Predict the 3D structure of the following.
Amino acid sequence: TLFRSRNRAGEGGGALTEPSVSAYRMSNYEEILGRLRTSFNSGKTRPLNFRLSQLNALAQFLEENKAAICEALAKDLHKSKFEAEISETSMITTEINVALNNLKTWMKDEPVEKNWATTLDTAFIRKDPFGVALIIGAWNYPVHLVLIPLVGAISAGNCAVLKPSELSKNTEKLLSDLLPRYLDQECFAVVCGGAQETSELLQNEFDYIFYTGSSNVGKIVMAAASKHLTPVTLELGGKNPCFVDKGCDPKTTANRLIWARFFNAGQTCIAPDYVMCLREIGR
């Protein structure tokens, strides 16, 4: 809580009103976005070597803090070390390695076929970064769903603001305390808070928004993005049927369904919700 000095005569200790707190947060968000946008506009994030250095720094964060990450996930979600590594850190490391091995190729201009209007031109596709991205994570995979989109943002040459889920509070604190020590703070930032803070954050103009969560909140994110014509990626939960064909082995299918349904305590957006099959399979 923020406080100001004011007594009964105007010099004591009264708490800031909610509008003042909100105004302070908005000013802080604007300062963060201003810093990141200045860095992006300077071209700092575009060179290959910068992108590689930040990807390697992210890999170093995961390696040096593996025990702390597993501990935070255990406190938040009771994840075992094995499941934490399988569902969170190893997946991020794989994404980083793919990016490191392919980034130079991804960044090359792609020649395209010319027509009569462009015969005398040099025609190609150049992949330009969007600018400053906002990544809003979810509580069920609180590391994975923040850092995998970050791998893409870094690889594409963007700056990024990360908003971890406040429901996984230990993981949120770990990311906000430790991650900025590894990444360039002029280009990447971590902000914390709940629904109110996220709503205020969304009032600012971003160049891309990546959100993972419920459809209801997805609509709010989409509405906020539409005011600035900001492109979005919305990874939303839903119902996921599983169709069992007559050529499937029933025992193998059942084992795989049970594994997928109960992995991460069933809290996975693509976990199977119900089964559809031919009548003879159902019998």
